[in-house]
Design a protein that fits this description.
The protein has helices at 130-142, 159-170, 182-190, 206-213, 227-233, 266-270, 287-299, 316-324; strands at 3-10, 23-30, 38-46, 75-82, 92-95, 102-105, 111-113, 150-154, 174-179, 196-199, 218-223, 237-245, 274-277, 307-311, 331-335. It has 341 residues and is an alpha/beta fold. It contains eight helices and 15 strands. Helix 1 (130-142) packs across helix 2 (159-170). The strands form three sheets. Strands 3, 4, 5, 6, 7, 14 and 15 form a seven-stranded mixed sheet that branches. A six-stranded parallel sheet has the order 10-9-8-11-12-13, with helices on both faces. The protein is globular. The chain has two domains: 3-126 and 306-335, Medium-chain alcohol dehydrogenases, catalytic domain (Quinone Oxidoreductase, Chain A, domain 1), CATH 3.90.180.10; 130-281, Rossmann fold.
Length: 341
């Protein structure tokens, strides 16, 4: 039986902050399933800041989305029909297929089986999904954090940053978080339990504000903002400090020739520093163990997260633009259909 699916595609390449007209809603009719395929009804889709680098022409670590193609993102969906022996009707899985109501899948690409039902579905697009896993493996594999080290996290109230500060805290590190405004900074203190928070808007000199909080320096910088901040913080890094490049929210909307450079390179020699970027899929085989550990923390009250659930597929473009503008309070996802029965 033919299935019609609404989807949002990239209508034109974005210049600067994306606009609603950069996206277009379409309705397509999906073909019947072939052997080895299964049909998934997405009911939650994610809004990911990292997608921004693929909405403009030019090559990043992933190529740009082609015009007319579905805007890619992560989703949670229910198998509603299957001709694949490994996937049964009623199974709930995570995918990386994009802003679409229905999708035909095979046993290729990113598929995350969801077996732990202790937490709400939206947790699997956030704290137990891409953002939580980026924080977990960015700190552990790339940053190599150790108890009692000083960890500095930028955009600390965001989906990735809020996970990073709490992971580091739970591992016995001293944590400093940087974010903007009383609401975000208040949540970090009062809910996440992070004592040392710097409000970027109130710091006349950010370098001095960080140095005042941690005069002996920083062991690990977990960086979500961009090159200008990295360059400013490099002199504060301790001997053999590690800089984890997870995101660049301040640089995503800038033309390449306007992205700030990193100049304080001499400190890498003097202090034997290491700076490394990360792609969370490098750790995919270890996700399950990390997800179980983080779910245990949440159930024990040692880890807190928040999600913003926006209603309706048609709301995704505006909600995404708002995310890039700094509006979001936690992980922003869009409900595009009812939860499984």
């Amino acid at each position: 039986m033919a299935v019609q699916s609404r989807q949002i595609v990239l209508a034109r390449y974005a210049e600067g902050l994306p606009r609603p007209e950069d996206f277009r809603m379409e309705t397509v009719e999906l073909p019947d399933l072939e052997e080895g395929q299964f049909l998934v009804r997405n009911f939650l889709i994610s809004l990911d800041t990292g997608t921004r680098s693929r909405l403009s022409e030019g090559i990043g670590y992933l190529p740009p989305i082609k015009l007319g193609n579905v805007v890619e993102s992560f989703s949670i969906g229910e198998v509603v029909e299957s001709r694949h022996p490994k996937y049964a009707r009623g199974e709930v899985i995570g995918l990386a297929v994009g802003w679409s109501e229905y999708v035909i899948c095979s046993d290729r690409g990113f598929i995350m089986r969801i077996t732990d039902r202790r937490l709400p579905w939206d947790a699997w697009l956030g704290v137990l999904g891409i953002s939580g896993m980026a924080a977990y493996f960015g700190l552990h594999r790339v940053g190599g954090i150790k108890a009692e080290e000083v960890v500095l996290v930028t955009a600390a109230a965001g989906a990735v940053g809020s996970a990073a500060v709490q992971i580091a805290k739970n591992e016995g590190c001293r944590v400093i978080g940087i974010d903007v405004g009383p609401e975000k900074c208040g949540w970090l203190r009062e809910v996440a339990g992070i004592e040392d928070i710097i409000d970027y808007t109130k710091a006349a000199d950010l370098f001095e504000a960080v140095r005042e909080v941690c005069p002996d320096g920083v062991d690990v910088l977990f960086e979500n903002v961009g090159n200008a901040f990295i360059d400013q913080m490099i002199p504060l890094m301790k001997m053999r400090g590690r800089i984890v490049i997870c995101g660049q929210t301040a640089d995503y909307n800038l033309p390449l020739d306007q992205v700030p450079g990193v100049h304080n390179i001499a400190y890498f020699i003097e202090k034997r520093l290491r700076m490394e970027g990360m792609v969370v899929f490098d750790d995919l085989k270890q996700w399950s163990e990390a997800q179980t550990r983080m779910a245990d923390w949440i159930m024990a009250g040692d880890f807190h997260y928040r999600s913003e659930v926006i209603e309706g597929l048609e709301a995704a473009p505006e909600a995404y633009i708002g995310l890039l503008s700094g509006e979001a309070k936690g992980r922003r996802v869009v409900r595009i259909g009812p939860d499984p029965a």
